[in-house]
Structure formats: C-alpha cells, structure tokens
Amino acid sequence: MPRKRFNSRILRQLAEELVEKTAEQQFLSQEQRDELTTSLVRQWITYDGNATLFVAEHQFYLVLSKTPLGKPFINPEPALAGWMRQLTQDWRIAADDLPAVIDQLNRGQSAEVINSDGTPLRLWVNPKERGRGVEPLVEEKFSPDIKRNYRKMAADSIEPLLGEALDQDELDALACSVASQWQRYDGSAALFLEDDQLVFTLKELGEGKCRVDAQQFKVSIEPVLRSHGFSPEVIPEVIVRINLGQEIEFQDSQGVHLHLWHDPKARRFCIQPLDRPAQRPRAVASPVFCPQCTAVLKPWAEDERQQNCPMCGCNVSIY
C-alpha cells in the first residue's frame, strides 16, 4: 500500500513549533532542536503520520490529524509508563546512561548501550505499531536443558506496561491468562484497557530461543459490547472476564443464549449460540501448565487423558 503523501514544509513547521515548546521544559541546544525537528518530520513520513518523542523519561506518540476544516495538527498520546523502570531493573542499564539512550531514541528510534553486566544492547521503538523493545547484541549460548517459564515471560512483558497499577495477585492472574492464550492461539494474546488494547506476540526464533513483542493500540471495545446488548453497568466486569481469557454467556434481545470470546490471533470477538459446537480452540478445564516446571502443555485432544511435558517429561493426567 502506498504511503500517505505529506507536505514536508507543513510537517517541518509543526515539528519546529513542538520542539520549541519542548525546549521550554528542558535545555536544548540549537543543534539538538534541529535534529529533533528532522527526526519528527522523517518519522511522520516513514510511519504514515506517526512519530514518538521522549521528554525526560516520559514517552509520547505524536499522531498527525486534521481539524474539521482540514488544518493539520499534532494529536499527542502518552505511551504506557514503566519502560524506563524495566530498562534499569530488568536490563540493568545504568540510570546515568538513560539520558544518552533517550537522546539516541529521539534522533533515530534506535539506541545502543552496554549495561552494568557488560552486555551490549540495542533498544528500538516503532511509533506506528506502538512497539518498543530491547535485544542483546551478542549471541547467548543455547542449552536444551533450559526450561521456559511462560508465566514469568508473560509477567515480564506485562509489568513494564501496567506494573505500577497492578498488585501481585492481578499481575499473576493476567500473566496466567496471557500464557494460556499463547497456547490456545498460536502465540497470540491480548489484554484490554479502557481505550487501549495490549497485544503480546510470542515469536519463536529457532534454536530454542523466543521473543515477546508487546504492542499498544487505540481500541475501545465498549461500543462492540454495547452493540451486543451488554448494559454499561456490566461492561467493566465483562472486560475483566475477557482479560482473564473467559467466555461470556449472555442472552440477546431475541432470547437466544449465546457465548462470546475474544480471539487474539484473528483480533476479533466471536459469538456463537450455546447449543452449537464451537468451531474454535475449546476452553478446556484440563491442565494448561506442567505442575512441575510450569511449561505450557500442548492442547489436549478430546479423548486424551495423559501427556508428557515437552520440557521436563513429567506425566500429567486428567482425573
């Protein structure tokens, strides 16, 4: 699909005005102002009208929009907080190195730094996909004896985005839901906030390695739920149950009993009458995790009562 056509002169004017306002909050040399202006214009052209900017340790997405009379303006959207805390705590990047890292991200949406353990890292942000991540620049030795803890991987992906708003019980419940969704939907999982959707994609990299990509999208599911007859007072509880990976049973205006669930791989809501066999990954009460090493088990067949954990070999049974 061809990219949108932009007037670079107007983009530069918008960028210059924004950078001037930013410079009022923190000291920026003229060279830094020029670099930020050029970066914003390049991002808008490259990422179809989307850009990102770090002001101190806060990240913002800057989306090009138009007034009803067609005048262009910048619509700022704050990114979810917590990434800087993850960089210092989980990736062991020294706090003193963060200003230089932020400067690199603002200028080129990519940064390289050596953490406190001496490991070189590459950081990246993608304003169009609302993605950001960290990758080691050295190959780690693969050991087939290393067992994956999918719930921990899920928690490590959720906490930087929502950690300050969650207590430990909530984090554990959401991590279990994301890990279970990965199993049922081929590495895809999603959580919903009021006006945002968080998508967590588990990608296999070969040689036993994997990576979790987290993305944030502006999505409101309340209109979808209201269109199916859910009243405003019950919608918050429905969203909670969807985030926990549960199915919702309800009755439509015609008295038909239905159930609703979210398919994160297809990124859509599915609805089916209760008396019709569901053509989808079934929600089983069978064990999802190995009780010994917490690895995610393969989907259970209809008549399957035992299987061996692919990671530790533990025999798991349904009674």
Describe this structure in words.
This protein is α+β, with helices and mostly antiparallel strands and 319 residues long. It has four domains: 8-78; 83-137 and 147-218, no CATH class; 222-273, no CATH class; 285-319. Helices cover 31% and strands 28% of the residues. It has eight helices and 14 strands. The protein has helices at residues 8-25, 30-46, 83-89, 98-108, 150-162, 168-184, 222-227, 235-243, and strands at 50-55, 58-66, 72-78, 110-114, 120-126, 131-136, 188-192, 196-206, 209-218, 248-251, 257-263, 268-273, 306-308, 315-317. Strands 1-2-3 form a three-stranded antiparallel β-sheet. Strands 4-5-6 form a three-stranded antiparallel β-sheet. A three-stranded antiparallel β-sheet has the order 7-8-9. Helix 1 (8-25) packs across helix 2. The longest helix is centred in the first third of the chain and has 18 residues, at 8-25. The radius of gyration is 23 Å and the shape is globular.
